[in-house]
Design brief:
Structural class: alpha/beta
Shape: globular
Helix content: 25-40%
CATH topology: TIM Barrel
Length: 305
């Protein structure tokens, strides 16, 4: 089902795997495992999983949209990505890690693939992993209401007590600019805010609103506060990673990955509205590996087709 063609990176930071599925060079995916030094793998291990062959959304900062879209992965194919990385390190499927995070956030928006829900239902019974923490990141494409409703049910059934993480990628509060950056019809801020009130209960992790800050794409913190309750939503700020799409579209990050202080003002602005704020800047070395941003599938396709 899965044939790994290439791997890149470092054991002590991040590794990216490119794999062939369906016996076809047209069906390639990539997936990632990473750690966060100085935190040891025994404490935190993160897997980043693809759910689509490419992505039809075409976000201006993401290279997944540069790959010809090849459809959805099946639940078995998604699980094969996870299992490949798990069995390399834990052949018996017992994962004694305090925080074993599986992010559905690599190639493809997971809300476009209902098979992600099947995977979330199966995961608790596949591994002995008390630290399992699934994380779903989406731009909230239009017509994903059924997916989100089912996701809420699955969270309540399998992942109570803060064992699930949900993120909405927002990036800018200017609707016109947001449509430019994420060129697909999306659910409104009103819908996301109302959904958050249904999704969140007291012991849950707060729902993340992610802003990858870029020049020319404004973020109005008062507008965010107008729609979103700080008791339910948390703010994550990230720099723009240097993907090929970013270079081609001439997108400039407002947060300097080499200078975290560049985010001080926007952090203060959000805090003044009552929000908790996470400044998420990975190791700069990860940009060279491509675990945060580069889409290695394109390079592999060019070398084998």
């Amino acid at each position: 089902m899965i044939k790994v063609l290439a791997e890149y990176g470092r054991e002590d930071l991040a590794k990216v795997y490119v794999a062939e599925m369906r016996g076809s060079k047209k069906h390639l995916v990539e997936f990632v495992e990473s750690v966060q030094p100085p935190i040891l793998r025994e404490k935190k291990w993160v897997l980043i999983i693809s759910t689509l062959f490419g992505c039809p959304v075409g976000c201006k900062m993401c290279d997944a949209g540069r790959i010809q879209y090849g459809g959805r992965l099946t639940s078995e194919e998604i699980l094969a990505e996870i299992d490949y990385m798990v069995r390399k390190r834990f052949p018996d499927g017992s994962i004694p890690i305090s925080k074993f995070k599986i992010q559905f956030a690599r190639m493809g928006d997971p809300a476009l693939n209902p098979e992600v829900l099947t995977v979330l239902e199966k995961l608790p019974n596949i591994y002995d992993a008390p630290g399992l923490l699934p994380s779903v990141s989406t731009v909230a494409p239009k017509n994903s209401e059924d997916f989100l409703d089912k996701l809420l049910q699955i969270k309540n059934q399998f992942y109570r007590d803060g064992r699930f993480q949900l993120q909405f990628s927002v990036h800018t509060t200017d609707i016109k600019k947001r449509n430019e950056l994420i060129p697909v019809s999306k659910l409104s801020f009103e819908y996301i805010a109302a959904y958050g009130k249904r999704f969140y209960v007291n012991d849950d992790k707060k729902i993340t609103l992610n802003f990858a800050m870029s020049e020319g794409f404004p973020v109005d913190v008062k507008l965010v506060r107008k729609y979103f309750d700080p008791d339910i939503f948390i703010i994550k700020l990230t720099p723009i990673n240097p993907t090929e799409s970013v270079k081609c579209n001439k997108i400039v990050s407002k947060i300097d990955a080499y200078n975290p202080n560049s985010a001080n003002q926007i952090i203060d602005d959000f805090c003044s509205q009552g929000f908790d704020v996470i400044l998420s800047i990975g190791k700069v070395e990860e940009n060279k590996i491509g675990s945060n941003c580069g889409q290695f599938v394109t390079n592999v396709k060019e070398s084998i087709l």
